[in-house]
## 1
Amino acid sequence: MQRVRRPQPQAFDRVLSSMCTVPHPEAHEEAVRFLAANPGDPATYETVAELEREAVDLLGEIAGLDSALGYIASGGTEANIQAARAARNRAETRAPNIVAPESAHFSLTKAAEVLGMELRTVPVDADYRADLDAVAAAVDADTALVVGVAGTTEYGRVDPIPELTAIAHDAGARMHVDASWGGFVLPFTDHSWSFADAPIDSMAIDPHKFGQAPVPAGGFLARDRATLDALAVDTPYLETTSQATLTGTRSGAGVAGALAAMEALWPDGYRESYRDQQANADYLARAFSTRGIETVDPELPLVAASLSPSTFDALREAGWRISRTASGELRIVCMPHVTREALEAFVSDLDRVRS
Ligand SMILES: *Cc1c(COP(=O)(O)O)cnc(C)c1O
């Protein structure tokens, strides 16, 4: 039968709000080749299972962890749920809680709901980072997990990870770092965020964001075998005996795409993307500031600025894919597909709609 309608996927040229981007061409190609392989059944699909081990090794290298344990997840949401699940399963309390800054991603709300845990969100400081005193006051003997964000979704801030880790471990809790977005830019900065910087227990780090892998490719990393053991369930009808992932059948596209992207881009390609996009974010922040628009300093390639609702709407009307923070600021994520020309066109539209 002839297909009468074949919609085109949306182009990325006006997308300024997304944490996804155009995949690297080799990653795209490898994802297509492994589309039907199921890494959830490694005894049947051995090749993709081997690729997954290589992908986890490389992710570990990026995140400062030798002999990394973990797997390619569906995204940061799954990795965060799994970190909470492992911590809950290892905790000795019957009423386990999670302590996280209010800047933490909404996937932790899902994690707490699904796992029957209490989520305690604590305030951030004046620069949008987890407030250490507030975190210390919120943890107690029932705390199973403390979460720090390395590259927050709204302002690109990095929480004080070593200090949070000390608070977590003093309370007998595990420490999880959510580097879902930041993990592929932070290696080129001076921030303390990784397994090498603090004795953290687990991390979420998404190849399908700044890693330039096709969706779905998240990463869950753990330092110790005990974390993965806490997630493993028996798998009666498979030839392997246990499975630590949350999903069962998964597409090999995520695994093969993530590995190909990292092999092509780590470290030089990622460093170049980071430098280009940090320069783009700085350009945009300057453009806003010189126009008298209040702007949050872009510490990572993510800019937030206060625009009136009518200006925001007019820019959306002009075709720009832009979004807002919870407090209503314009939020622009400088992902690898964002060009300086696009930002210049955006700024000239901004001038047009404001005049
Ligand atoms: C994007 C993001 C997530 C969620 O990841 P998905 O891949 O969308 O599931 C979690 N945490 C942070 C900090 C993120 O930026």
## 2
Amino acid sequence: MKSLQLSMLLLSLVLAALLSFSMGALPHEDFLQCLSLRSNDSSTISSVIYTRNNPSYSTVLESTIRNLRFNSTNTPKPLVIVTPSRTSHFQATIYCSRKHGLQIRTRSGGHDYEGLSYVAKVPFVVVDLVNFRSVDVDVENRVAWVQAGAILGEVYYRIAEKSRTLSFAGGVFHSIGVGGFISGGGFGLLFRKYGTGGDNVIDAQFIDVNGRILDRKSMGEDLFWAIRGGGGGSFGIVLAWKLKLVPVPATVTVFSVSRTLEQNATQLILRWQEIAHQLPDEMNPDVSMFSVNSTQDGRKTIIASFSSLFLGTIDELLPIMQQRFPELGLSRQDCSEMSWIESILYFNQLQNQPLEILLNRTFRNPVGGQYYKIKSDYVKEPISETALNGLFSRLSDEEASSAIIIFMAYGGIMDRIPEDATPFPHRAGNLYKIYYNVNWQEQDNVNSQKYIDWSRRVYNYMTPFVSKSPREAYANYRDLDIGSNNVGITSYTQASVWGRKYFKNNFDRLVQVKTKIDPENFFKHEQSIPPLH
Ligand SMILES: Cc1cc2nc3c(=O)[nH]c(=O)nc-3n(C[C@H](O)[C@H](O)[C@H](O)COP(=O)(O)OP(=O)(O)OC[C@H]3O[C@@H](n4cnc5c(N)ncnc54)[C@H](O)[C@@H]3O)c2cc1C
Ligand SMILES: *[C@@H]1O[C@H](CO)[C@@H](O)[C@H](O)[C@H]1NC(C)=O
Ligand SMILES: *[C@@H]1O[C@H](CO)[C@@H](O)[C@H](O)[C@H]1NC(C)=O
Ligand SMILES: *[C@@H]1O[C@H](CO)[C@@H](O)[C@H](O)[C@H]1NC(C)=O
Ligand SMILES: *[C@@H]1O[C@H](CO)[C@@H](O)[C@H](O)[C@H]1NC(C)=O
Ligand SMILES: *[C@@H]1O[C@H](CO)[C@@H](O)[C@H](O)[C@H]1NC(C)=O
């Protein structure tokens, strides 16, 4: 009896193994065969395909896993990675993935905070744009064609090579991919002066679910509107953007001033809330808060670090700050003058490094641990001292020892660009955005959970003090806690939960565009825009 049971058990194990083998392997073999048949240059496509038994598979996959939460052995991995070097490779990959029921995840710089560009719970293929990263700068016409796989550092460097008084309204961190950055809106040092990344795009090259290569003219204004902020991974694959370059002065100023609670940080933050959004467009004031052990008595305190770029000289900045924010006591010693491109190094904590470091795609996490959870909020009314104290007390929790919370001032041109100019809706009426970042050093599921729980507790705590109906969130700070679908079952009602937080009333237009360009919902992920049926 026992041995019969045992052999039945063995048999079912063998069967299960066989089944999973054939189920896993067969479509994937067919897919590879399809790729080589479909591609009219099969010799070059084979050199950009990485299956799991390719010795470079892990290196390629891990090359831009920025959040190590998604580098664990139980993170689902793609069956195949394709790193197209020609447009025909994209076309073949889209065609064959559709034919064989595989999902595509597109990856440019890999910074997605929830790893959606390289993690999926269904059989999938990663299309990585690492070989699509040329940057062509035309100083005379103040434009640049940039392939989506370029990182912001490459864009800034190539512009600076030709002109120190032009730039792009991009993000701070040099390793972010322009593909995902602009797809989700994109804000940075210049956004109060010139708007989001998406506001500064004037044409694009795009490939749709049928493999058609479209530009602004052939895609039409609706789709061109949608891809400049409606979130990556919903409509198709952006191959390149044509960026508008914007003027920056030859000399800019940066400053950073830190105060502890004992040095009146609380009063300064309360004051900052009232005035930061009214400071000149030439600034991007923010205040970062984190806890430290006091050097005096070892007890915890909070440091608030007030910092900004200023598009001008120290002599121009000081009187402005003296007049508008005298309480901060900004002095000449707190400020440094430099070129615009050097300010990028400064804010990446790469001061005194050669500019070439901006070309280096190797990631350096600017804050804390390599495992993290991010959330965002928008604030329309100044929060009270009591509310702020509650936030500080949570920042003093053990789980928050390397957490950082940043208030980033709105105002400037954001107040003057209409909410529906692009899908990015967070414009007039916002005092500032809150960025919550909890991070930690070691991977351990029990440990990770306690940090994630901390971020949820803080987010709950902040509910009464931030935007409501919807509680707005920034699409590029992806957070699956605010709602997500189990890939495949995307209902409009379900998607509108997170869709309205990210896009407010622009969500409906995004759904219309999606319904037209990808009615069968091939390009999808946990927070993608659904088509209407
Ligand atoms: C350290 C760090 C700092 C950051 N700083 C800022 C900042 O200063 N300002 C800011 O606005 N944001 C910032 N972010 C957020 C960042 O802008 C977003 O994560 C952005 O989506 C990253 O783009 P990516 O190409 O690097 O990411 P990816 O992970 O490659 O892509 C993000 C999303 O876009 C999709 N996608 C990628 N490429 C394409 C494409 N070519 N066509 C269509 N869809 C595509 C992906 O499938 C995924 O859904 C930061 C993130 C990190 C990790
Ligand atoms: C390869 O395919 C592309 C796109 O389908 C086409 O434009 C190109 O002319 C083809 N090249 C050859 C050599 O057949
Ligand atoms: C990611 O995981 C792999 C496999 O466990 C490991 O070899 C690699 O070092 C990890 N990457 C980083 C940056 O820790
Ligand atoms: C803090 O504020 C109080 C009252 O406004 C003031 O008396 C004190 O000097 C300030 N302390 C510092 C360190 O600025
Ligand atoms: C701060 O103090 C706590 C407890 O007193 C200690 O566990 C922790 O290591 C200290 N942190 C630093 C950065 O010194
Ligand atoms: C990029 O930076 C990393 C980390 O600092 C370094 O190890 C690597 O050599 C650099 N690569 C290039 C091409 O400079």
## 3
Amino acid sequence: MEKIVAAIVVCCSIIGLASAQLKVGFYNSSCSRAESLVREAVQQRFKTDRSISAALLRMHFHDCFVRGCDASILIHSETGDAEKDAFPNETVRGYDLIDTAKKAVEAACPSTVSCADIITLATRDAVALAGGPKYDVPTGRRDGLASDITEDRLANFRGSGKPDPTMDPGLAARLRKICGTGSDPAVFLDQGTAFVMDNQFYNQILLKRGILEIDQRLARDRATGPIVAGFAANGTAFQRSFAMAMVKLSKTGVLVGKAGEIRKNCRAFNPKRGLRV
Ligand SMILES: *[C@@H]1O[C@H](CO)[C@@H](O)[C@H](O)[C@H]1NC(C)=O
Ligand SMILES: *[C@@H]1O[C@H](CO)[C@@H](O)[C@H](O)[C@H]1NC(C)=O
Ligand SMILES: *[C@@H]1O[C@H](CO)[C@@H](O)[C@H](O)[C@H]1NC(C)=O
């Protein structure tokens, strides 16, 4: 999970004015159980699937970076041209957990809590369960009315994964073995504590154990090297920066007030107002 964590810490700064309308505890009076219902659903899932924390982080990040944090990533398209379809569906997962949380919240307070807020809250809770920071995150987001594969800048945005001379040779050999099996290979980008939200990623790239070349470069680049060294040396500093970056990320391009809608079903626009897809 550290790969996506590093991306969030490094690059979140695009925040619109609408985000000023988000409030910690937005649902205090309209749906006082909203946050606890989401948390219960996440806790339940985490008991049997610790990879859910990384999955939600990834979903939240990808949702926020296309059209803002508006749950457009959840829209299911019969024709295959929604934002969701730009990713192989095994890499952005957790849709069913969002459905479970949404169902619980709808039963308590119908048409009140947005899917965009549910993704944000569930990600926050899953990060804390994995040993990450506990932080307050503002809510009040509305769900978007469009989801389009062609806006997806991120589809061409992956690292190459090629072993290179800056990689620890032992690790390179092991990866060649895993990748030469013929089956669909998968390795953890964090070779140590893959299911724990910690600063190990930074220690590992200092030890030349980054899996992706682009990660490894973070440690060697003059601009990012000192940040990597600082986070590697001080886990508390990392956790604090991470929490602040997550709150910033969650404010990216949000819809508030009367914009957008509160979806009944996170995977579909509400009837009548549906535009595309
Ligand atoms: C909701 O309640 C919490 C805890 O009492 C408080 O910190 C927060 O400011 C409240 N938010 C709103 C919008 O009323
Ligand atoms: C992944 O996508 C394929 C093709 O759209 C679909 O048939 C399959 O059910 C999806 N799998 C999951 C787990 O959503
Ligand atoms: C680690 O970072 C925290 C938070 O920034 C800071 O308060 C603390 O003094 C740092 N510890 C060391 C040993 O530098």
## 4
Amino acid sequence: MNKIDDNLTKVTARIAQAALAAGREPQSVQLIAVSKTQPPSALQAAYAWGQRRFGENYLQEALDKQVSLSHLADIEWHFIGPIQSNKTRPIAEHFAWVHSIDREKIAQRLNEQRPAHLPPLQLCIQVNIDDETTKSGVTLTELPDLVAAILPLSRLQLRGLMAIPAASNNPEQQRSAFAKLRRAMEQIQATGVTLDTLSMGMSGDMDAAIVEGATFVRVGTDIFGARH
Ligand SMILES: *Cc1c(COP(=O)(O)O)cnc(C)c1O
């Protein structure tokens, strides 16, 4: 077994264990392999193991890898990085999911630019759960208006919320940030909006995220090793 195989097996077991401990079905938590800065050969190795969902942060790097890996037609590409408004078209054309929506303008452009032959672009709104001024994402106060603005856009399907909480080694602190995101989703659901996705949890905090209801965990380091 190569290292990436071994890591994927371990991460998948860890997801299953955290899910079962929380009384959840292991299949209710899906793994996104975050492959930013990794070469196409690393994604190819993960694919050969059976991984199909990949998350990328940098648009040009992602597009280059998509060309290199175009023979692997069933990869599901997730865009998880900050989005510049002049770069929306390739995102609308080349990804299945976007997790990092935090402005109405970006959503409108993606809606206009999503090709008709593709299914609606699947979206999560990124929430700045700790109100860190340096981080992207809407505040909890701004969230309802952005939800309302996105719902009528027919080429987009709003699925849920995403967050990157402040890094912490304390499991209680990790859980409390993820619980905030879960409660924010529950509040939107209570208004009659159907949402089914919580994109939260990375290598250092995925276990806490799963306890609080993560449906996607986005894992890079624990699969591919430290980034250079
Ligand atoms: C890099 C990144 C991850 C993965 O982080 P690791 O700590 O390497 O698992 C997850 N989500 C986002 C948005 C990222 O940028």
